[in-house]
User: Fold these one by one.
Assistant:
Number 1:
Amino acid sequence: MNNSIINYAHRGASGHCPENTMVAFRRGLELGATGIETDVQMSKDGTLVLIHDESVHRTTGQHGEISQLHIDEIRRLDAGSWYSHEFAGERIPTLDELLDWAADKELTLNLELKNNIEPYTGMEEKVIGAVRARGLEERTIISSFNHYSLLTCKRIAPEVRTGILYVENLVDPWNYARNIGAEALHPYHLTMESFIVQHANAAGMISNPFTINDPERMQQLIDMGCAGIITDYPDRLHEILHSKAERISNPL
């Protein structure tokens, strides 16, 4: 088995389960994920919760902004039925819930801070505090489209890796990332080209593109030398990595 490439389950195994729920995270692990990618927002009373949108509407059918709801209100919402009645009753989890579950598992955690629209003052300190409380610093990478937030994370915790999220074709992104103390590029996968990965690798910078569900594109990114791939279907990537490892170990 090829363990050199991290298989990040995007919002958990969100191709199979309601995104950013504990069932999606558990299913990701079952399907071969070696990493979990998730989105962190903060409730009105300061609880870190895992949901992509600033509003609860899309994944619960209810109304309200995460920043204006208390955790007890958020935890009452059904975050599974929108996907399938099979998942009725799934809740929006807290970051603590995910970290407690992941603590004894061999998983890398990619925590995306969703503070590029809602500022969530103090989020960085809370996230890092939760990670440090469980000794997960070496297994965590913090990403964000808010690169000022990544600077804050580095000031608080130089030992925790950060990755710049972006969707544009940046010029020399490895240099930009290095200038803000980041260790990783987290680009939209269509901006990822072989020369970028090569320059990033030479600069000691890893590349974890998102979100790749097509096996052919997965293989292209593997061949480029990416360190991780973020996908809704970790089973597809697992199959590619497993098949590649089998061919290497059994060339005849």
Number 2:
Amino acid sequence: MAADVSDVASDVARRLEAILLIVEEPQSLVSLAAAVSAPVPAVRQALESLVDDYDGRSGGPMRGFELREVGGGWRLYVREELDDLVSEFVGGQAPSRLSQAALETLAVIAYKQPVTRSQVASIRAVNVDSVVRTLVARGLITELFADAETGAINYGTTDALLTHLGINSLDELPHISPLLDGADEVGDGAEEGGRR
């Protein structure tokens, strides 16, 4: 009987691996359970077993990839210490997918949200209209609400950004104030609610 339970658990883990190898977005427990036709508790146990296996806690070697829960779902990722190797292999010389202007605008929105387009333009000292449209089109930011007094749209980041960054929440973003010259003055004058 114990062999049968072990065989079923191994089969669930194998089917999960097949699904996890092809997904581009993190998958919830329920989604994975439906995909492999197994109960959620069995899927949860199989995922924990796979994490232990990939991390080398099951007696085997630590793998070059890991299984992480990110953005409310599970997905395979390259281990952080191998990021540079993979980047070089994939083509470290290839241009980044977002322009420098888009990355700077995205950073301002991530740290200051909710924030209006004019506030971002004021911080960056350039017009950001086209960059904001690009970020919205790529699903990295979204319109949160319109200001009651001015009608200005306030923007914030999406779960897709968390997924791309490999983090669960904005609280995991690094604090930037220690990296800034005159951080004390910046911190004293910063708006309440922005990340520092």
Number 3:
Amino acid sequence: MLRPAYPIETERLTLRPFRTGDLEGLYAYQSLPEVARFLYWEPRDLEESRAFLREKMSASTVEKEGDWLVLAVVWRETGDLIGEVNLQWRSREHRQGEIGYIFNPAYHGKGFATEAAEVVLRLGFEGLDLHRVCGRLDGRNAASARVLERLGMRREAHLVQNEIVKGEWSDEVVYAMLRHEWDARPTV
């Protein structure tokens, strides 16, 4: 079980559970075609973002296998919601997890995704005592791959045309890190 103490602070960011007032910031990036491009969903309208926000607001603890922790990422300098980071407890028996992140393109290229994703990796390894954490992404998403590489994750697989996403064959790339690699890594 994982119940982080909130808020979680990094050098520049605050990570916390989503709340009702986050709708505008959430919609600002969920409505963009360039954000949805490599994800399973299409750009969302305001009502779809509102429904998704309700789901996100209840994802602040991980109690059982399959649960997702979903945290809002706020840039403290401006107070803006700039994205989200996620951690799923995929397997209790095998101590496996998965991380993910989505950021507003207005904040790309500043290291925010790496800074925030490092927090959920730490929560996975040190909070849930996971053995292995992976990150899966569309093979065309080079920027997301760079985030995982900066975190010290290793590219383990490139699955060629393994699924149809939005009507076209898509490659999937898998990165992973083991607990002993986390413990031995240089800090990001």
Number 4:
Amino acid sequence: MTQASRLRPDERRAQILAAARRVLLADPHRELTVERVAAEAGVSPALLFHYFGSKKKFRYAVIEEAAAEVMLRTAPDPSLPPDEQLRSGIRAFVRAVLEAPQLYRATLLMSAAGDPEIRALHSDLRRVFSQWVISAVAERGIEVTPVVQLACYGWQGYVEQTLLVWIDNPAVSPEALEHLCEQSLDAILSTTSE
């Protein structure tokens, strides 16, 4: 696309974010750079900075959009039985991460490094996902005690670390990774019965 100045600012931002998504999908293991995204969008890096202000703000916008998409993709489908809701949501989450592993890694590392905006976004994402998992567990007929809640939160940390390790060393297939994440929740929940 040429540098047409006729796009409204919100349209130009959307165009650049769509280009970032294409770059991530085309080569999910390469780092997302301003130069690559600008080239894909058909704009100059300077124009990208004009719309986002800084590399950090650009990255935040990309992460925010990806987080919103993950939430949409993993939202429970109430037409499915509770067990299938849970399985399909976990699989959707793992697939979303595997489509953009560098973005996922950047999100977790920036959150761990104390970036307040990324940490808040990551906390929101975790809270929504954890509440969804806890609700799905309750739908399966499991009493949601404080121990069960704690186990669900802990499981999410386990999944995050498992995905980070897999991104650096994909020693098993994506399907095996999905299965591991699904089965680990049941294994952890089995330790909560009194």
